[in-house]
Design a protein that fits this description.
The structure holds two protein chains of two kinds.
Chain A lengths: L1 H28 L1 H5 L6 H7 L6 E3 L2 E2 L1 E5 L6 E5 L2 H8 L2 E2 L3 E2 L1 H5 L1 H5 L9 H7 L7 E4 L3 H11 L4 E6 L6 E7 L12 H12 L21 H10 L16 E2 L6 E2 L11 H7 L2 H11 L1 H11 L23 H7 L10 H12 L3 E3 L4 E5 L5 E4 L5 E3 L3 H17 L10 E10 L10 E10 L7 E7 L8 H21 L3
Parallel strand pairs in A: 1-7
Antiparallel strand pairs in A: 1-2, 3-4, 5-6, 7-13, 8-9, 8-18, 10-11, 12-15, 13-14, 16-17, 17-18
Helix pairs in contact in A: 8-17, 10-12, 10-13, 11-16, 12-14
Chain B lengths: L2 H15 L6 H27 L6 H22 L7 H20 L8 H21 L5 H4 L1 H13 L14 E3 L2 E3 L1 H26 L3 E2 L2 E2 L3 H21 L2 H19 L2 H21 L1 H11 L3 H4 L6 H12 L23 H34 L3 H25 L17 H22 L9
Chain lengths: 487, 453
């Protein structure tokens, strides 16, 4: 019997070896495949097991983390959620991340290898880095001024520092509180459904993801093209422009909101926003030079990231002369994001230079040591410095004695341009009220802020007066907030 | 007999002439080590989860220590020649099981299982002490073979009268406690098989006709055995407890082979197993699903229903890797309701890693090996078969459940000896260790022996 007991013992030993081999198979050879299986929740548990880093405005966090004690432990909270939603986006356990929460996720979630001082040691200890912080370029006061100015109306505001490209304000209205999407409770699903079904589209970032016909504010670009191309050599010389203006090759006639535009000089036509003068000017410059100037200002660029992507602003290069005439006054296929129009204004303020806008000043570890800072940004010459100087003067006149007097700030030099963009079939929709501007405080060496404001469905009398009446006060509040800010 | 057999006889005489040392001091030292390791496990869980030593650590440690010490005293008193490894392995595995269950309790605050498990452990150790103190000689059990088998069948039949729990009719619930009578039945059946085969092994091996090279015993000898086996398997199919059925079958085949030495029994056993497995897999949807899950553990993920228990178990093992996440730092609770019972090994695999898992497997292997060793050292056939049977129960059970949760074989609901939550299981395993202690004491000590080898 001894022999058979030994056989049975050998059989048991074989079973043990099979178990050990199987354990090695699962725990060593298949481990990576199992760990990365999308159905394996461990990665998510680890991700939400730490407090997420914060997004900072004026050195103070506008985000936070709430310990729920649940399996996905920390949920995102937002201070002034609706105010900063167009910048932060949301960080939802259920629906992922957007905007800065998305582009800066490696830092915020702590997975960025740059957060680790000793990578090998961390691999050994399995320690996870705490999430790092993202310091934005935003000016909280300007952001609030813009948000208050819009007062829940549909619209957007973008403000830049012309000399650097720092984004000072980015507001979209109506907004939403991203905090309602943070967790994974049934309430989050209801909020998601409600926000998506809402006809006002509160989750749409109108400042960077929505394009509008820029209307008369585009005349800044057309004027720059005319001056750079040498079509206009003297801003005070009368132009050869009829009013009303029959679009070339058609019988359609274009008129103005105000009278007396016939043969007006560029200075006067800019001040009173004469459509006829600028439509003809665009045709005189030609589609090639108009397109080149528009592109230099940033139109037709798919690649802009601030760091999240910005919708492409368009100037259609394949137009006939009649369409070019309409394109040159910001209609037809010409479309721009509010951020793009702020860049146009900033270029005028900064001697014709366009600096790529950016929203992240620096990223830091949880301890505050710097991980990455905003490096030098590409600079592009949108127009000659001389042209910029002329346009600065023209824009200043709009505010001092033109359609944009509502933007004037006592003691500061302010330049602006109003716009009213028609939209809808047969101009059936309510017009968009636009205002683009820049401002320079009395002690400043150069303009401190450039801003673009758009208000949809401006419920006022049609005409340029709308941009001046509805949008200019908002731009003024934003610029004032920036000029008053203590350095 | 064989060459190996002939070497036993002189060893026996020498054993009688020169008494083996008691080695109780080694046992005590190992028990202290086992208790300290368990307490260390508690502290590791508490430190990992809350940054402090858990308040219950001293209590649990003291409880486990007192139980182990009393068991040690019983062995010292009544089984001084017993193998000194058996009791410490039992204490360590039971302590480790308590740590793992306590650790999983932290994830399910509404459902604490560790205190109950400690109560059952106490019952188990008490039973151990009673067996060691009251059973003077394992051969007494041989007389009660038919009482044992009657009791075993009764225990197997009773749960049919109770409602099914999670698809299996293997539980009876009394006064808040749920008992799994089938667990006790396996020790009783081992006693019966050992007694019956010890008596009839010569008849089984040499009587009857030869058929296809197999020595078939006469129906008079084989009949009762087959009948009891069929009844037990039939009951288990009715109760849908595939694991226990497999265990009984494996135990039956191993003991039959050891008793008769006929290789044909293994061939016949495997053939019966194949036919049975095919029939059950085909007819029984509960089992059929298990086989499908084993073949395609991620099918439910692809179907968009999320990972099933087996997939979660594999994720847990994989997350542990070689060194494990550390006690208290894994997420094996994702496995769901069976995490503390059938799938407790996944928690060990995740938090202790391949290293810890191998250590646990080796502890079981050591327990089994010590059981076989006691069987080899004994001279009476009943004792040899009993020791072999008890050790095989542990080995088969570990293989079936560890192979199941690791994706090696189809999953069968079974408790990992000592580790898993389950009172009946802990009590039964303490009974097994008690019998092995008794058997090994007889093997290594002097006993007045009237039987010839």
């Amino acid at each position: 019997m001894t022999r058979y007991i030994r056989h049975a013992a050998c059989f048991c030993a074989l079973l043990l070896v099979a178990l050990l081999v199987n354990a090695i198979r699962v725990q060593v050879f298949q481990a990576r495949a199992h760990d990365t299986n999308p159905a394996n929740r461990r990665e998510n548990i680890a991700r939400y097991g730490r407090e997420r880093g914060d997004i900072l405005v004026d050195g103070r966090p506008v985000t936070g983390s709430r310990d729920t004690g649940e399996q996905l432990r920390y949920e995102r909270t937002y201070r002034d959620g609706p105010l900063y939603a167009p910048v932060t986006g949301f960080a939802s356990q259920e629906y992922g991340t957007t905007l800065l929460e998305h582009t800066e996720d490696p830092v915020l979630s702590g997975s960025d290898p740059m957060l680790t001082p000793f990578p090998l040691w961390n691999d050994f200890t399995r320690r996870r880095n705490p999430g790092g912080d993202v310091v934005t370029t935003l000016n909280g006061a300007a952001q609030q001024a813009a948000f208050r100015g819009l007062a829940g109306r549909k619209g957007a505001v973008a403000a830049l520092e012309p000399a650097t490209g720092r984004v000072l304000a980015l507001v979209s209205s109506p907004s939403y509180d991203p905090g309602v999407l943070s967790g994974n409770s049934p309430g989050v699903g209801r909020s998601w459904a409600w926000l998506n079904a809402n006809p006002d589209k509160p989750m749409l970032n109108r400042a960077v993801r929505q394009t509008y016909p820029p209307g008369s504010t585009f005349k800044v670009v057309t004027a720059a093209a005319a001056l750079d191309a040498g079509v206009i050599r003297d801003v005070d010389a009368p132009t050869d422009s009829p009013a009303p203006y029959t679009l070339p090759g058609t019988t359609t006639s274009l008129s103005n909101e105000s009278d007396g535009c016939e043969d007006l000089s560029l200075r006067e036509a800019f001040r009173w926003s004469c459509n006829t003068v600028f439509a003809k000017l665009g045709v005189d410059v030609g589609v090639r030079d108009m397109t080149a100037t528009a592109r230099a200002f940033g139109f037709n660029d798919d690649a802009l990231r601030i760091p999240f992507s910005v919708a492409r602003s368009t100037f259609d290069p394949s137009v006939d002369r009649a369409q070019l005439a309409l394109s040159s006054i910001g209609q037809y296929n010409t479309r721009a994001t509010p951020l793009q129009m702020a860049m146009v204004s900033a270029a005028v303020a900064d001697g014709g230079q366009i600096r790529t806008p950016y929203l992240v000043e620096r990223t830091t570890t949880a301890g505050g040591s710097i991980v990455d800072t905003a490096g030098p940004r590409p600079v592009r010459q949108a127009m000659t410095p001389e042209t910029a100087a002329v346009l600065k003067e023209l824009m200043t006149q709009v505010v001092t004695e033109g359609t944009g007097t509502n933007a004037a700030i006592p003691g500061a030099i302010v330049g602006g341009k109003t716009g009213t963009a028609q939209h809808g079939i047969g101009n059936a929709g309510m017009p968009y009220a636009w205002f683009v501007a820049w401002a320079q405080g009395e002690r400043d060496m150069q303009p401190k802020v450039a801003v673009a404001v758009v208000v949809e469905d401006a419920s006022a009398v049609r005409g340029d007066i709308t941009g001046g009446g509805v949008a200019a006060p908002i731009a003024r509040a934003v610029m004032k907030a920036v000029l008053n800010a203590k350095e | 007999m064989t060459k190996a057999g002939t070497t036993v006889a002189p060893a026996d005489t020498s054993a009688r002439a020169v008494r083996l040392p008691h080695r109780r001091g080694i046992e005590l030292a190992l028990i202290v080590l086992a208790v300290l390791l368990s307490v260390y496990g508690y502290c590791a869980v508490g430190l990992a989860r809350h940054g402090t030593v858990p308040p219950g650590a001293a209590g649990y440690g003291a409880g486990l220590g007192v139980l182990a010490f009393l068991a040690h005293l019983a062995v010292r008193l009544r089984a001084p020649y017993a193998d000194p490894l058996l009791l410490p392995i039992g204490v360590l595995l039971n302590g480790l099981g308590l740590v793992l269950i306590y650790r999983l309790d932290l994830e399910t605050p509404g459902d604490r299982a560790a205190p109950t498990q400690l109560v059952w452990s106490t019952v188990g150790v008490t039973l151990f002490i009673v067996v060691v103190l009251m059973l003077p000689d394992h051969r007494v059990l041989q007389r009660y073979a038919y009482v044992c088998v009657a009791a075993a069948l009764a225990l197997l039949i009773v749960p049919i009268l109770f409602p099914a729990v999670n698809g299996a009719r293997i539980w009876i619930r009394i006064a808040g406690f749920s008992i799994q009578p089938g667990e006790f039945a396996k020790v009783l059946l081992a006693v019966f098989f050992a007694a019956y085969l010890a008596t009839n092994r010569n008849a089984l091996a040499s009587s009857g006709r030869r058929f296809w090279g197999l020595q078939l015993p006469t129906g008079r000898v084989l009949g009762p055995l087959l009948a009891i086996w069929l009844i037990s398997v039939g009951v288990l199919v009715l109760e849908r407890d595939l694991g226990t059925s497999l265990l009984f079958f494996g135990l039956f085949v191993v003991l039959l082979y050891v008793a008769t030495g006929l290789t044909g029994w293994i061939a016949l056993g495997l053939l019966l197993a194949a036919v049975g497995a095919f029939a059950v897999g085909w007819l029984e949807p509960h089992v059929h699903t298990r086989v499908e899950d084993w073949l395609h553990p991620f099918a439910s993920i692809e179907a968009g229903q999320g990972p099933n228990q087996l997939a979660q178990s594999l994720f847990a093992f994989a997350a542990g890797g070689v060194l494990g996440t550390g006690l208290g730092l894994g997420h094996s609770v994702l496995i769901g309701f069976a995490a503390k019972s059938d799938f407790i090994l996944a928690t060990a695999g995740e938090e202790l890693g391949l290293a810890g898992l191998s250590a646990i497997f080796l502890l079981y292997a050591l327990l089994v090996e010590r059981g076989y060793r006691a069987g080899l050292a004994l001279r009476d056939p009943f004792g040899r078969l009993l020791a072999t049977g008890l050790a095989s129960i542990v080995a088969l059970q570990v293989f079936v459940i560890a192979g199941g949760v690791g994706g090696l074989i189809p999953l069968t609901g079974m408790a990992m000896p000592f580790l898993a939550q389950g009172g009946s299981s802990v009590v039964t395993n303490w009974a097994i260790v008690a019998l092995l202690i008794r058997v090994s004491d007889s093997a290594h000590g002097q006993y007045d022996d009237k039987e010839t080898p």
